[in-house]
UniProtKB/TrEMBL annotation, chain A:
Needed co-factor(s): [3Fe-4S] cluster
Record field: transmembrane: none
InterPro entries assigned: 4Fe4S_Fe-S-bd, Fe-S_cluster_ET
Protein name, as recorded: Ferredoxin
GO molecular function terms noted in the UniProt entry: 3 iron, 4 sulfur cluster binding; metal ion binding
Gene3D superfamilies on file: 3.30.70.20
Span of domain 4Fe-4S ferredoxin-type: 1-29
Span of the signal peptide: none
Entry keyword set: 3Fe-4S, Electron transport, Iron, Iron-sulfur, Metal-binding, Transport
Length: 64, 406
């Protein structure tokens, strides 16, 4: 699984960072940064949650 | 037998739907969600709108780009008298803009409220909370927590973020309270808007002359570098940040404290371990969903929501309150349960307009609940709970007063 972000959609709500700051961060403009692009195990569950919770649908999980 | 519009209208439920119990969702929302989750309601001006009550559908409405937030459009549903005329006194707030226009207004401000930025504000928020508790402890008991603590804390926080002198906050708070009262008539709302506009214009001018280390100064500098200062737009930004940033938080402080003082088991959970507080904050946000007049949208094209065809030009109201009490998403949703993970609630909205200040609000509430309940272990209501006056007539739910003693 690969985490993908879409900066055009990102609204900087920070919900991903609050879901798991090891996987996500925000850049200087407040937009999403993905720190772990291929989450595994517990990280994968957190990534799924962040995708669900993102208000702007700026995150997605793609099959490799 | 003719089927006239009048006959149909007379059977429609009127919106807004008022809360009668401080805890329970009005039964009509539950009935709608179970029987007809996308149904027509009638608005105060006689217009109709589709009311959406299921969590999944509410998220679909709020993230659909074909459903416009632009209240400048003539067909936009009117729930509050004078709202559109009052809005016309200001440059458009970002919350009424769509698509690229909205993005252009929001983007320059989002870094001001990032998780990291808000975390850096926490020590100052702690100082502010401690300061107002110190001041409160000097007062004769009982006190109205709303006046001496719940409103002053977020007011000072948001004043400092904007770089606005705190001396003006009482004047501002009085105006804002009238603006947010549902019973304020059209002319009243317009008059208040004109006064607030003048107040913000003055603030912008002062900040251009004397910049500091604050949000407004940084926006001015950014605009200057990008070709020119848009004063009306900056005035609207400041007003939005102020309006969104103090009343809402104050109401959540009051409702949270009220809940814990009337439910000892909830209070015990908070006191047991500060690590419980973030979950409790989100659960309180879900449970009360204070801006419960719904997110209003206007269909710019035909759209299907929950299997119902909404036609171009029709109005839609997404009830975040009904969504947050949807049993398909939250087990036993009518229960206030601090141990559940309810962070996917829609109390801050959903879609591109989701609240810009939500992380600030969460941190303020966490610091308030942890500090207030630790420093005042004997805090209790000074009147019977039944005598409290809830804001069922306001645009933002809450309590008018919260008399407490210790």
């Amino acid at each position: 699984m690969r985490l993908e972000k879409d900066h055009d959609r990102c609204i900087g709500a920070g919900q991903c960072v609050r879901t798991d700051p090891r996987i996500f961060d925000q850049d200087d403009d407040g937009l999403v940064k993905v720190l772990i692009e291929r989450p595994r195990g517990a990280d994968e569950a957190a990534a799924h949650k962040a995708v669900f919770i993102c208000p702007a649908k700026a995150l997605s999980l793609a099959e490799d | 037998m003719t089927n006239t519009d009048i006959d149909e209208t007379s059977e429609l439920v009127s919106f807004p739907i008022q809360r009668t119990c401080p805890f329970a969702i009005p039964p009509v929302y539950t009935k709608f969600r179970e029987e007809a989750p996308v149904s027509q309601v009638v608005l105060p001006d006689g217009g109709k709108a589709w009311l959406v009550t299921k969590y999944e559908d509410v998220r679909a409405v709020m993230s659909n780009p074909k459903l416009s937030s632009d209240r400048r459009k003539k067909e936009f549903p009117v729930v509050v008298p004078g709202q559109n005329a009052a809005l016309a006194k200001h440059a458009p707030f970002m919350i009424i803009l769509d698509g690229a226009e909205h993005s252009a207004a929001r983007r320059p401000v989002i870094s001001e409220f990032s998780v990291r930025r808000v975390a850096a504000m926490k020590p100052r928020i702690q100082e502010i909370v401690d300061h107002f508790i110190d001041e409160m402890l000097k007062l004769p008991r009982p006190v109205d927590l709303n006046q001496v603590f719940s409103l002053p804390v977020p007011s000072l926080v948001v004043s400092e973020i904007l770089g606005m002198p705190y001396e003006g906050h009482e004047y501002f708070m009085e105006l804002a309270e009238v603006l947010l009262r549902r019973t304020t008539d059209e002319q009243g709302r317009i008059d208040i808007s004109v006064q607030l506009r003048a107040y913000m214009d003055k603030l912008v001018e002062e900040k251009i002359a004397n910049p500091g280390d604050d949000l407004l100064s940084r926006q001015i500098e950014l605009q200057r570098r990008n070709g020119g200062i848009d004063r009306p737009q900056l005035a609207s930004l400041c007003l939005l940040v102020l309006l969104a940033g103090h009343e809402t938080t104050a109401n959540m402080i009051n409702l949270g404290v009220f809940s814990m003082l009337t439910r000892p088991e909830l209070l015990a959970q908070i006191k047991a371990d500060p690590a419980n507080t973030p979950k409790a904050v989100d659960e309180l946000l879900r449970f009360y969903t204070i801006p419960d007049f719904g997110a209003h949208r206007l269909a710019m094209d035909d759209v299907e929501i929950g299997g119902v065809l909404i036609r171009k030009g029709e109005a839609v109201i997404a009830s975040t309150f009904a969504a947050n009490r949807d049993p398909a998403v939250f087990d036993d949703p009518e229960e206030l349960d601090f141990s559940r993970d309810s962070r996917h609630h829609v109390a801050f909205g959903y879609g591109p307009h989701q609240c810009l200040g939500q992380n600030l609000g969460r941190v303020e509430l966490q610091v308030v609940f942890d500090t207030l309940l630790r420093r005042l272990p004997d805090l209790r209501l000074a009147v019977p709970a039944e005598e409290l006056n809830f804001k069922s007539d306001a645009l933002v739910y809450g309590l008018y007063e919260l008399p407490v003693t210790w």
